[in-house]
Amino acid sequence: MRLWSLHPRFLDRQGLTACWREALLAQAVLAGRTAGYRRHPQLERFRAGEAPLDLVGAFLAGVADEATARGYRFDRTRIDVLRVGPIAPAIDVSDGQLDYEWGHLLRKLRTRSPERALDLEDASPAPHPLFRVVPGPLAAWERP
């Protein structure tokens, strides 16, 4: 499961659809609808919030917004808690985590979507709208 802290605009088609599916799985775990993945480390940051389902719903909304911008149709009715309006940053992500994910994404893209990797060569990482960047190292939950 990879719930990217990076803005979904950086993901290729495969990455965007995988992120959607994995975030739906995360939502099911947080809602108690599945037995698998309950201890997945990437869920820690959602569980740390006051309303984990609101947070994962906002994450899914950000991914769906990017899909819509690209002309894809992700079924927003699958989002348990969907707030109307722009997403406000609610989860801190360290710049060290963002940099790690940026390198990880670029390595994946160089293999899977070389054209996309070239497009991003001069770009700088930016967070998903749900995340607020703070100084710090790689997240403790990350498994490099």
From TrEMBL:
User: What is this protein's name?
Assistant: Pyrimidine dimer DNA glycosylase
